[in-house]
Amino acid sequence: MDIIKRNFFCLLRTGALNDFTTLEPMSPYKWRLVMGMAQQYQVEGAVLKGVKSHQYDRGIDFPNELFKLADFTQGEDQAEAWNLSNRWLNKRLRQIRMKEPCSSNPSMETIGLLNLLVKGTREMMKGASMVSHTVALGQYLRRQNDRINKEKLAAWVGKTHLQGMVQLQMRMLVEFLDFQAEELPLPLPMRKRDIKRIAQQLNQPITGKEGDLHFWQDNNGLVRNNTQALRRNLQRALRLLPYASLETLSYFSHRFILSLNELEE
Predict the structure, then answer these.
(1) Reduced to 3 states, what is the DSSP secondary structure of residue 225?
(2) Which of 19, 26, 56, 153 is least surrounded, with the fewest CB atoms within 10 Å of its CB?
(3) Would you say 96 and 152 are in contact if contact means Cβ atoms under 8 Å apart?
(4) Which residues contact 82 (CB under 8 A, 6 or more apart)?
(5) Structure confidence by residue, pLDDT tens digits, 64-114
(6) Could you tell me if 44 and 71 are in contact, meaning their C-beta atoms sit under 8 angstroms apart?
């Protein structure tokens, strides 16, 4: 990780999680690149808070532009019930959400975390950047970690076959927000191949759109498609397949069928 990204994540940790770390001196040009990353990944509020917390650090000279960042960070709605593409798995997910409030010892904080993890899975499928989601996930765990029922969460993740996708999201917290193993709600096996996939996902620009896989008919009646978008979707599907095979196949099959349905009869 280069110095620009190291300082970017240091500011994120300070602003979003109140973890104070040492910044490395950079030129005004590189600090402006940090500003651009904050805007691109929609974490301006967290980075601005970090800048204000470090503005008097010795050897750190922020350009004035950094103090003009919008005081806003794109967050996640923990209450929103995001769905899975696989009907069988989504049925299980709905049952979990319906039964938990009526159980003898309900844990709605664990349901909120499950919703966030499902949202993160969907975002990875779309190819969106995971920076703002990782920040929101880290904030949620710092606030609610003592109330998370780890046994229930492990059982729910197993029922929905999302163990691999959850481990990827946990690994993002460790690698980029410096979370410790004891802060994670589930054990995290170390797999070197995860790091490359995480770096690819975090470095994605905010262009992941579910509608970018598009087929159409030309004037001669021939079916055409956006070959670059198709290639990106296939590459992403192959990267994620080892982590959630059922959901990955269902999601991309669904996207493919929807795109074909757009063709004029």
Answers:
(1) strand
(2) 56
(3) no
(4) 115, 118, 119, 122
(5) 888 887 765 555 545 567 899 999 999 999 999 999 999 999 999 999 999
(6) yes
Distances (CA, A) of 227 to 224, 232, 261: 9, 9, 18
pLDDT digit string (tens) for 137-186? Answer: 999 999 998 999 999 999 999 999 999 999 889 988 988 899 998 899 98
Report yes or no: 226 and 213 within 8 Å, Cβ to Cβ.
yes
Residue 33's alpha-carbon distances to 107, 201, 203, 215, 234, in angstroms, are 42, 19, 14, 37, 31
DSSP class per residue in 89-113: HHHHHHHHHHHGGGSSS--HHHHHH
What is d(CA 246, CA 89) in angstroms, rounded to the nearest whole number? 8
Q: Which amino acid, one-letter code, is at 152?
A: K
Report which DSSP code applies to 41: T
Most confident of 18-27, 186-195, 202-211, 216-225: 18-27
CA angle 26, 27, 33 (to 5 degrees): 85
What DSSP character marks residue 77? -
Q: What gap in Å lies between CA 187 and CA 244, rounded to an integer?
A: 17
Name residues whose C-beta falls within 8 Å of residue 122's C-beta, 6 or more positions apart in sequence.
82
Cα–Cα distance measured from residue 41 to residue 203, given in angstroms and rounded to the nearest whole number: 9
Distance CA 130, CA 13 (A): 15
| Structure-block tokens of residue 176 | 């980029």
